[in-house]
Design a protein that fits this description.
Blueprint lengths: L2 E4 L6 E8 L23 E6 L4 E8 L15 E6 L2 E8 L12 E6 L2 E7 L6 E5 L8 E5 L5 E5 L5 E6 L11 E6 L20 E9 L6 E8 L5 E2 L2 E2 L12
Antiparallel strand pairs: 1-2, 2-3, 3-4, 4-5, 5-6, 6-7, 7-8, 8-9, 9-10, 10-11, 11-12, 12-13, 13-14, 14-15, 16-17
């Protein structure tokens, strides 16, 4: 994508322009595309708001000049300047080679406030986020064996659990079955519910229309909400059924 416009084609208003690293442009910051400057072609380097003709984001990457000849950070984002300020990234505990998995430790520094991310080496999933000054992860995530999020712990220590229709392991969709708020915590690194927990969990249950030929879920049929749950100005006294219109 190069431009975003609004209005009819005959009189379109230019809203956004996206600028990419071009190895053949001698004026490009990373050019020439040679042994010492190996930013990958096609990486976005700037976003311009054409309504005010001002850049709203600039992105720099680690190259052989800024990192090293065989550094595992090559091609990864180094710095972003946008409305949030200056965001700097650093990567440690990576695979032995630049293309081997993900770096398991990522530091995001926003205006010198440092956030630490823990990443799974092979899936790339975030498993924890440690806020500035925190001794332990402020947010935690864990996942199912097929790569979907199973648990999330927020900064206030609240847990959300996601349950899927995974009884048929040949079904690659694994649609969401239940969204559980006020969930019991998971045990250690197992991603399994604490069996001793007595929380009053709040469950939203998802049911689907299925394709007659494949029996695969294709559209939400209804959502059953916890008793007493309220949407808008309608109070739900018992389990609620929502019938989507498909629009």
């Amino acid at each position: 994508m190069k431009y975003v416009t609004a209005g009819p084609d005959t009189n379109a208003e230019l809203l956004w322009e996206y600028v990419y690293y071009d190895p053949n442009d001698p004026g490009d910051k990373y050019a020439p595309y040679n042994y010492t400057n190996r930013a990958r072609p096609g990486l976005i380097t700037e976003i311009i708001d054409r309504r005010i003709d001002q850049p709203v984001a600039k992105i720099e990457y680690y190259t052989m000049v800024s990192a090293g000849l065989i550094d595992d950070k090559l091609g990864r984002v180094k710095k972003v300047e946008n409305e949030e300020g200056v965001i700097e990234y650093n990567y440690t505990e990576c695979g032995q080679y630049a293309n081997e998995g993900f770096c398991t430790k990522v530091t995001k520094k926003v205006n010198n406030a440092e956030y630490n991310f823990t990443i799974d080496l092979y899936s790339g999933h975030i498993t924890g986020i440690k806020n500035p000054g925190a001794a332990t992860p402020s947010q935690q995530y864990c996942y199912t064996s097929y790569g979907k999020m199973k648990y999330y712990k927020d900064e206030a220590g609240n847990y959300t659990r996601y349950e899927y229709y995974d009884d048929n392991l040949q079904n690659p969709a694994y649609p969401l079955k239940k969204l559980v708020r006020n969930a019991c915590p998971f045990v250690g690194t197992t991603c399994e519910k604490d069996p001793l927990c007595t929380n009053q969990e709040l469950e939203w249950e998802y049911q689907y229309f299925t394709d007659p030929a494949t029996q695969m879920p294709i559209k939400i049929r209804k959502i059953l909400a916890p008793a007493g749950f309220q949407i808008g100005n309608m109070s739900i006294i018992t389990k609620m059924r929502l019938i989507p219109t498909g629009r």
